[in-house]
């Protein structure tokens, strides 16, 4: 069967899943309305709110399951001929740095000296306050005949890029982070695609990982590979995202990188879409990069990404409402930017169920399905989540990111579950900071993991208590609510939250923390 046929079947199955949840929602609403006298105003509100939360997570995961399958099929992939290019087009490579280790910078510069495409120059843009370090960077750049540029800059990475870009003369502008050691033919590939496909404003490639020495590293690599798989699917509707590094632009696409935002690349991607400019995702390795070495660094990086996506989406909501993006682009940005709210909605659902249990609120669903839906729906949801996870694993293995070991898979699931409360905080932070127009931007903000972990674990213990009571109630030892299946979600939330603090303490001991002083922060 061809990929095109599988693509159509994939979308058909996705539509059927959505139809199933739509029917469930409509029939449940009818059931709630029919019992409105018994429920009263409060009962109606709690039933409808819980109904919405029940289907919110599946709505998100169905979307991403379909997208990941499309990504695995490499929908929208184009052919290019690297042998057909000449050296007429010049490429300017920019590497922004801030208090970086000398050896890390040199590894990247050495990688650039080995490029098969020779018509390029390199600019290292530096805003390091330490004068001694600046001199070392300058000497290193001179060693490889690259240009060193220093300027004071208070606008993070985007500010430095906007200072350097006007000084470059290349037809194309390529960005690498300081730890992205490029593959020897990546500039040639970038030039070939942009030369041969004028409809693309930029090319974003994936990158591999060269320091995966523990399960935390593998978790990060697996999470990033899921993003790459989704990028494959976004090619078909012009929504490929710039990911900050390992990307090459036409000069027209980098006139001004958004400043005073948490993640400039995501915001810039949306700006390009509003101008009807699209990128191409190259599903090949452009570079090998370094992964966060500590738990604190990993969590603060995730926090910044989630916060930045949410705040950037809200900041561009006017563009979306005014039709400056296509429907598919708008829908994809919505799902991508708010995914944390969707996939962690079971926390809110647990609280609503808790109120329904404590206030003895009757539970009505789908014209008689009622409490059984609390068993049937989770099974259906597990199928959707399991499919999403399986596709991601297959893509990860097939793409040869890293060699997976048996224990990496359970760690991925456990760490993802225990990290999700922190990521919800990040999404809320991004939403509120955008709504209230906060001007404060921090690069890899340090998160109070222990304090928040204690808070989450306390809530988890309360849910374990509800689990015991509702279970005893179900089997008739406690006479309170009667028949119920609330214990299932109470138990799930109890496990998801209670062990957050113990896990944080163990992981911090295993993956030694590094302080987040100025000397430890670099682009």
Describe this protein's structure.
With 523 residues, the chain is α/β, with parallel strands linked by helices. The protein folds into two domains: 3-74 and 339-520, no CATH class; 82-326, Spore Coat Polysaccharide Biosynthesis Protein SpsA, Chain A, CATH 3.90.550.10. The chain contains 18 helices and eight strands. An eight-stranded mixed β-sheet has the order 3-2-1-4-7-6-8-5, sandwiched between helices. Strand 1, helix 3 and strand 2 (120-126) form a beta-alpha-beta unit. Helix 2 packs across helix 7, helix 3 (102-113) packs parallel to helix 4 and helix 8 (264-274) runs parallel beside helix 9 (295-315). The radius of gyration is 25 Å and the shape is globular. The chain starts with a helix and ends in a 13-residue tail after the last helix.
Search tags:
8-stranded mixed beta sheet, disordered C terminus, 2 domains, alpha/beta, single chain, Spore Coat Polysaccharide Biosynthesis Protein SpsA, Chain A, globular, 18 helices
């Amino acid at each position: 069967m061809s990929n095109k046929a599988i693509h159509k079947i994939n979308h058909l199955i996705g539509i059927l899943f959505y139809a199933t949840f739509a029917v469930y929602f409509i029939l449940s609403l009818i059931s709630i309305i029919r019992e409105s006298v018994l429920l009263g105003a409060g009962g109606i509100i709690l039933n409808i709110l819980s109904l919405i939360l029940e289907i919110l997570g599946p709505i998100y995961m169905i979307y991403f399951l379909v997208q990941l399958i499309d990504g695995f099929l490499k929908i929208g992939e184009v052919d290019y001929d690297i042998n057909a290019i000449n050296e007429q087009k010049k490429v300017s490579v920019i590497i922004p740095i801030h208090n970086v280790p000398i050896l890390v910078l040199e590894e990247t510069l050495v990688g650039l000296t080995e490029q098969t495409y020779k018509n390029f120059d390199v600019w290292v843009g530096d805003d390091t306050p330490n004068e001694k370090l600046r001199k070392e960077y300058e000497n290193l750049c001179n060693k490889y005949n690259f240009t060193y540029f220093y300027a004071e800059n208070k606008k993070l990475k985007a500010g430095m890029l906007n200072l350097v870009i006007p000084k470059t003369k290349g037809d194309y502008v390529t960005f690498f982070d300081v730890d992205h050691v490029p593959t020897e033919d990546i500039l040639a590939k970038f030039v070939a695609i942009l030369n041969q496909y004028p409809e693309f404003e930029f090319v974003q490639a994936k990158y591999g990982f060269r320091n995966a020495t523990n399960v935390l590293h593998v978790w990060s690599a697996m999470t990033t590979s899921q993003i790459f798989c989704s990028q494959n699917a976004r090619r078909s509707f012009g929504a490929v995202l710039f990911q900050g590094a390992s990307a090459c632009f036409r000069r027209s696409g980098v006139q001004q990188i958004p400043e005073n935002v948490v993640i400039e690349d995501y915001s810039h991607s949306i700006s390009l879409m509003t101008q009807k400019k699209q990128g191409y995702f190259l599903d090949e390795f452009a570079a090998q990069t370094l992964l966060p070495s500590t738990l604190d660094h990993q969590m603060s990086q995730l926090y910044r990404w989630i916060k930045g996506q949410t705040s950037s989406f809200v900041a561009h909501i006017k563009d979306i409402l005014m039709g400056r993006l296509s429907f598919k682009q708008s829908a994809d940005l919505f799902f991508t930017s708010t995914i944390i709210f969707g996939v962690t909605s079971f926390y809110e659902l647990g609280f609503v169920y808790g109120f329904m249990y404590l206030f003895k609120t009757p539970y009505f669903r789908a014209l008689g399905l009622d409490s059984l839906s609390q068993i049937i729906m989770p099974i259906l949801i597990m199928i959707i989540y399991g499919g999403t996870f399986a596709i991601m694993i297959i893509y990860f293995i097939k793409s040869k990111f890293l060699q997976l070991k048996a224990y990496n898979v359970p760690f991925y699931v456990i760490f993802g579950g225990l990290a999700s409360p922190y990521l919800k905080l990040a999404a809320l932070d991004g939403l509120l900071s955008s709504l209230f127009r906060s001007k404060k931007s921090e690069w890899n903000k340090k998160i109070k993991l222990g304090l928040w972990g204690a808070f989450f674990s306390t809530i988890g213990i309360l849910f374990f208590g509800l689990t015991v009571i509702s279970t005893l109630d179900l089997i008739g030892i406690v006479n309170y609510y009667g028949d119920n299946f609330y214990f299932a979600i109470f138990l799930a939330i109890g496990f998801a939250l209670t062990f957050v603090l113990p896990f944080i303490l163990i992981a911090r001991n295993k993956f030694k923390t590094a302080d987040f002083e100025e000397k430890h922060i670099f682009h």
